[in-house]
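Posted in: Structural Biology > Protein-Ligand Complexes

Title: Requesting predicted complex, pyridoxal-5'-phosphate in pocket

I'd be grateful if someone could produce the 3D structure tokens for the following input. Sequence and ligand are given below.
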Amino acid sequence: MTAEPASPTLMATYSPAPVRFVSGRGTELFDDGGRRYLDFLAGIAVVSLGHANERVADAISRQAGRLVHVSNLFHNELNEHLAQDLDRLVGDGSPAGGQVFFANSGAEANECAIKLARRVGGPERYAVVSALGSFHGRTLATLAATGQPKKHEAFRPLPEGFRHVAYGDVAALEKAVASPGVTAVLLEAIQGESGVVVPPDGYLAAVRRLCDERGILLVLDEIQTGLGRTGRWFAFQHEAIRPDVVTVAKSLGNGMPIGACWARGDVAASFVAGDHGSTFGGQPLACAAAIATLAELQAIDAPRRAQEIGAYLAQRLAALAGVASVRGKGLLLATVLEPGLDAGEVTSSALRLGLVVNAPAPEVIRLAPPLTVTTAEVDEAVEMLGAALVSVRSAETGRGGAK
Ligand code: PLP
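-- Reply #1 --
Done. Output follows.
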């Protein structure tokens, strides 16, 4: 798809595709020409209930007419309610006994987790070990935690106290946490942005044991994987472990900007008034959207839907010509393409055909549709992706690329 000239008014931090969506309903999106698309990206794993979900829209509009914002200098009746709902999901249905700080994005939720880990560790123990290939956000501290050296280059010097080890490698992590000064391990349960990379079974459980042995916090970034997407409320629940800190954002407000950092009660207690804050974090409007989102996700049994429809989607994707393998869990899936096929070109071709997906790595296409997606929509999307693969493969073959 031909790129449009850069915007004269927007900083060029993104290269958006040449389409302008103006409305949506469920899995469908409509552009400014009235053309229909199927959204198998969901705003990067954000609109888990689909676009224009009625329950969430209604909660937003009622709250907007009542009270949008008061600041955290006062109690509001919604953030405590939401914190309780979130705590129950962290506990897989029973209270987990934690406390929550509300922010406005994933990066801010992780900033909170990093500051909390430093508060727990004290001035001699502040290092955070995270994984190569990880993505934790774009603020300076979360960028430093992000294990992608290329993203660091233009912004050095970054905050100190961040180390990286190979993802999925317990021995490498053991070595890194053996050196003094480490307060926390920060990991994604599945690495979403680097291409839906799933660690070996048992990895998180082994990391939990390691953290216990060393008295180090286990912080899980569930910003992309959380709230039902992988087939459990949180991806760590696949391994039946309990992290010390969990961060969420993305789907928490079904598109309304909100992030949260949950921590075990005794860990959360390290923060005192004045240690951290946010003007907007936990404001009534965002919380009303999130309360409605969590209620609806529970009403539709989102983890079960993700598991069942995800298994069907994975099986259909694996049968497509040009797909070497499918990985992921639930409805956070990726197809790894056969050598010679460019995922960026396949994504552009799919968009021309009416399917929204993205390419987090040159050979990987990510699929993260709303958890409300139907099997008929899966069939339609797989048809379009198959046609996109055929068209890119024939163009590549013409150029002497893919066989
Ligand atoms: N952590 C993970 C695992 C993410 O996938 C993302 C965003 O893609 C972030 C953190 C950052 O979230 P945000 O863009 O809301 O700051």
